[in-house]
């Protein structure tokens, strides 16, 4: 197959147009970016700090369950009465 000058120019022009389209798409893709606000960053930092804190409540619940199962859990009568009358 022989390619004459006119066909070569058309091929070159198509190549240049295609390259422009690809470059345009790449430029558009590079424009997208995400910015996290200072508040978002602070929330993330706080979540990380909270994750490092041991779950004290869970340990307390497990301890109370164990005491109840073993029959060692005792609450003073005065404390029960105080809690019952607290919201009256």
The gist of it:
The protein is an all-alpha fold and 88 residues long. The chain contains 4 helices and no strands.
Q: Domain count, please report it.
A: 2
Average pLDDT, rounded to a whole number, is 83
Helix content: over 70%
- Main sheet specs: none
Radius of gyration: 36 Å
Which terms summarize this structure?
mainly alpha; 75% helix; 88 residues
Describe this protein's structure.
This protein has 88 residues and is an all-alpha fold. The protein has two domains: 1-31; 55-87, no CATH class. The chain contains four helices and no strands. It has helices at 5-31, 38-52, 56-70, 77-85. The radius of gyration is 36 Å and the shape is rod-shaped. The N and C termini lie far apart (101 Å). The mean pLDDT is 83. Belongs to the FlgM family. Pfam families: FlgM. Residues 32-85 form the Anti-sigma-28 factor FlgM C-terminal domain. Keywords: Bacterial flagellum biogenesis, Repressor, Transcription, Transcription regulation.
Secondary-structure map:
Layout: H1 5-31, H2 38-52, H3 56-70, H4 77-85
